Amino acid sequence: MATIKRLETPIVSVLLALLLAAVLPAAAGAAEVDHAGQYRACMILVKRNPEEAFESALAWRDLGGGDAANHCVAAALMGLNQYGEAAKRFENLAQEMKAGAGVKAGLLGHAAQAWLLHGMPERADEVLGAALELKPLDVDLMIDRAVARAALGRYRDAVGDLGQAIGLDSGRPDAFVFRASAYRYLDKLDEAEADANRALGLDPDHPEGLLERGIIRRLKGDNGGARSDWLRVLREAPGTAAARAAGANLEKMDVKTE
Asked: How far apart (Å, rounded) are the C-alpha atoms in residues 7 and 236?
């Protein structure tokens, strides 16, 4: 079985869904508190100053902020890199709050992302399985579970999840990039390159897509093509994780053995 890393691989961004989550219902509490406004302000603060957001959310919770305040607490913990504690809080919130299946599935998805960042892909896989039972056709949950399974070396299962996701939404370049990576680990380089090309057909400047195609081209002996893709990442997405990986791969390729 292929190892986790042959060259620098795309780094999965697992935080995006947290900051795009729907606002949770405000708890019943003190009438003078604008819970909806507090929630919006707290989530903005999470991005700017997670430590301050954490303290603010705790104080708001004491004023009756309820589930919305607890959600902001968990999000702030993510921003503070306290991934394990954040994951537990997201799971507890999903279990305890009175909400529909879609909201609970979203919270479990947040928990799974935190478990991934905490280095526990097996727990992330379990939580995502529960989330998909609540919301079976959620493309984001399928993609996240594929990422967790790939982290466990279960590349065929990852390909299966990504195939389902693509079947539901064929306009997701990230799904094609992740499947290209999974195919690469399965030594199916032709399939991997085809998926990378599909991703770039949807978004020609997709940094992770260019990075992945460069890796595949390098493995197939197309050093010129690999160099072109990686240089393009450096040009189009400077300062990103994809650019750092592309730069590292270029350095490796340029090393001359004496």
From this structure: 20
* Rg of the Cα atoms in the chain: 20
pLDDT per residue over 122-145, tens digit each?
A: 999 999 999 999 999 999 999 999
Summarised one tens digit per residue, pLDDT across range 227-249 is: 999 999 999 999 999 999 999 99
Contact assessment for residue 226 and residue 215, using Cβ atoms and an 8 Å cutoff: yes
21 vs 110, 131, 213, 237, CA distance in Å?
9, 15, 31, 26
Topology, domain 170-257: 1.25.40
Joined together, the tokens standing for residue 211 give 């990075």
The answer for residues whose C-beta is within 8 angstroms of residue 24's C-beta and 6 or more apart is 39, 67, 68, 71, 97, 99, 103
Amino acid at 215: I
What region, left, alpha or beta, does residue 119 occupy, with left being phi > 0 and alpha being psi -120 to 50 degrees? left
Cα–Cα distance for residue pair 7/20, rounded to 1 Å: 31
